[in-house]
Structure prediction request, 171 residues.
Amino acid sequence: MKVTIDTTAVVSGIFWKRDSHTILNLVASGDLDNVISDEIFEEYEDVCLRDKLLEKTEQDAANIKASLSELKKFSTFVKPKTKFDAVKDDPKDNKFLDAAFEGKADYIITRDKKHLLKLKKFKGIKIVEPEQFLKLEFSRFLPDFIVETPQGTYVFEAKTGKLRKRLNKLE
Prediction:
């Protein structure tokens, strides 16, 4: 699944270990493809390495640089051919729409309530908060689970909880 993670969610994921952090881990594990542009990654670096943020969170710049380097390694870079003008109040946010559209992302994941989240959807791309994304999609990343009983072994789908198959007990 392809996503474009905006800077607010990246900052949240690197500095605070909540839902955004889970999403960054899904990118690092290869379960999600973070589709971004050079311009987006430059913003990640600029915001995450600001002295004010580092001081406020008591984080070490070297550790943040290492986290960003990992994120860069596991992201897919695109060069958007189309430049949109859908976010009038903050035109810099259009770069997330540009990259998501170019990379055929399924979601833009953001904490930007003032601009991006107001759109809800753009050209078929859902725009959601990290928590909402995990509620909608997290089960797809769970493995099926197996239950063994004296009557046999059952395999259930993690996403639906439905029985996928029953394995006969070997005598």
Remarks:
- Strands lie at 2-5, 33-36, 75-77, 107-109, 121-122, 125-128, 145-149, 152-156, 163-167.
